[in-house]
Design brief:
The chain is α/β, with parallel strands linked by helices. It has four helices and five strands.
Length: about 140
């Protein structure tokens, strides 16, 4: 262990927006991202799992869209985040992470054997996905 002097660093935002369908999560995420990148929409990417709904807001600016289709595995989300990172996106909006959790719940319910011990097959996959979000060098807003 080593003691060090505190230092202020530029932290990256990790944020989740939760609301009912149609409440404006995607629009709000885009408006937040717009402020973060100071109106440079080319630095924003939306990982869209909502069948093209990210394009509904193209009137705001020319942002990037990466469309994901089923199955919505954690590994697929991780790959999508990495594509955005390699493209040097400053803000990544994941719209929506709900599909990943639903996929994991369905996977868990399909496993034979003890329901409790079967979580050991699910939790590491979910943790890897969450760790990818938390350790990203981009700002991430999830809905």
């Amino acid at each position: 262990m080593k003691l060090r002097i505190s230092e202020r660093k530029k932290a990256k935002i990790k944020m989740a927006l939760q609301a009912p369908s149609g409440a404006g999560k995607t629009m709000s995420a885009l408006l937040l991202a717009q402020g973060i990148v100071e109106n440079d929409f080319s630095k924003i990417a939306i990982i869209d799992t909502e069948s093209g709904s990210a394009d509904l807001y193209s009137h705001l600016g020319h942002y990037n869209v990466l469309s994901l289709t089923a199955p919505f595995t954690p590994e697929k989300y991780i790959e999508a985040i990495e594509v955005c990172e390699k493209a040097n996106m400053e803000v990544i909006i994941i719209d929506s992470i709900s599909h990943c959790w639903e996929m994991l719940l369905n996977f868990h319910s399909s496993l034979a054997g003890n329901s409790f011990t079967n979580w050991a097959k699910v939790t590491p996959r979910h943790k890897t996905f969450i760790d990818k979000i938390l350790n990203s060098n981009s700002h991430i807003i999830a809905t």
